[in-house]
Structure formats: structure tokens, C-alpha cells
Amino acid sequence: MKKLRYDPCLFSFTCLMAAFIACSSSRAESSDTAGESLEQRRKSARMLNNEGVKDLALLDYAGAVSKLEAALALIPDYKIARANLGVAYNNRGLSLQKKPYEAITFFHHALYLDPQNDTTKANLEGIILKMGKKPDLFSDRVSLGNDAVLAGDFKGGVVEFRAALALKEDPKVRAKLEKTLSKIGSK
After folding, report:
1. Which of 31, 56, 103, 123 is least enclosed by beta carbons within 10 angstroms?
2. Are 122 and 5 in contact (CB under 8 A)?
3. Helix (H, G, I), strand (E, B) or coil at 9
4. Is 80 within 8 Å of 91 (Cβ atoms)?
5. What is each CA distance from 35 to 29, 30, 40, 41, 43, in whole angstroms?
6. Residue 72 class from Cβ within 10 Å (0-12 exposed, 13-18 middle, 19+ buried)?
């Protein structure tokens, strides 16, 4: 059984980068109203990101998720807040190791944000094993995707259908992935 793991280097690096970006000087304010509005949103997003990082350090994952999602609502392409949100979801999943059916949703959300994160992939695989399923079995990944979609967790469905398709190409699963992506509104 794979052991769930926490990547302190990723967390520390992400926290340091978030603090650096938040503390760096802001761009010169624009003289037009739209520019001032954008600059204010950026400032608010940086503040929310910093507060989210503080919550992460205090192991307040719900607070961190709330603040980091709010930062992304203000500035959707704020990469550091997005990375920090992935860390918050991953670490919340880790805190629920004894409740794998709850934890899996948080790992799904973390992987949806950062599909290449090897630490979160390993953590998800560990939780899948705890659920009595095999992460390298196509049918189990499809089943997990179907379960996620039925529960309204479309991001989880996307993660699982993509994992299934990485194991074996299948037109029916490809169609499920496309349908699930359309429910989220992004590809």
C-alpha cells in the first residue's frame, strides 16, 4: 500500500514564493478607472493569498481554501494562489487519511488544479488503495470517475477519467470526459 506523503519542500517553496510575490512592490497605478480597479483587485488578491498561506501554516485548511479561492475569483490567472490552493486541498486530503471517501475529493481538486503534481498523484493513489481499489486498473478509475460525477464532483470526474484514459484509450470514457468538462465549463 502506498504511503500518503506530505511534501514540505513544495509547501515551503510555495509559501516563500507567495510571500515574495505578495510583498513585492505593486505595479504603477493606472490613471484610468479600469486600471485602478484591476490594481485594487490585484492588491486584494495578494492579501487574500497571504492570509491563505498563514492559514495553511496554522493547518486551517478550510480557511486557506476559502481565502485562496477568493483570491482566484478576483484574479483567475494568479498562479501562486492557484498553487497554494492545490497545496491546501492536498494537505486537507492528508488530514482525512482515516476517511478516504472524504479525502479523495480534496486530492481530486488538488490534481485538477495541478495535474502534474507527483506528490498529489501519489497521495491520491494511496487513498484509492485505502478504498480497496487499484489506481492502475482502468475499470476502477472509470468507476471512481462515475462516482465523482454522480456526487456532483465534476473536477473529480475529470481527474479520474483522465487517469483511466492514461491507462487505456476508450471512446466511451473519452466522451464521458468531454461531457464532464463541459459541465465545468473549461477544457
Report:
1. 31
2. yes
3. helix
4. no
5. 7, 5, 9, 10, 12
6. buried
Percentage helix, strand, coil for the chain under 3-state DSSP, each rounded to 5: 75, 0, 25
Answer left, alpha or beta for residue 185, where phi above 0 means left and psi between -120 and 50 means alpha.
left
Q: What is the pLDDT of residue 36?
A: 58
Gap between the Cα atoms of 173 and 19, Å rounded: 41
Return d(Cα 154, Cα 160) in angstroms, integer: 10
DSSP helix/strand/coil, 58:
coil
The CA distance from 145 to 36, in Å, is: 43
**Cell numbers 466522451: residue:** 175
pLDDT in tens, 97-151: 999 999 999 999 999 999 999 999 999 999 999 999 999 999 999 999 999 999 9
Do the beta carbons of residue 73 and residue 49 sit within 8 Å?
no
What does the pLDDT look like over 6-19, one tens digit per residue? 444 444 444 444 44
23 pLDDT above the threshold of 60: no
Instruction: Please identify which residue in the block is written with the cell numbers 492557484.
Output: 82
The tally of CA atoms less than 13 A away on the side-chain side of residue 29 is 9
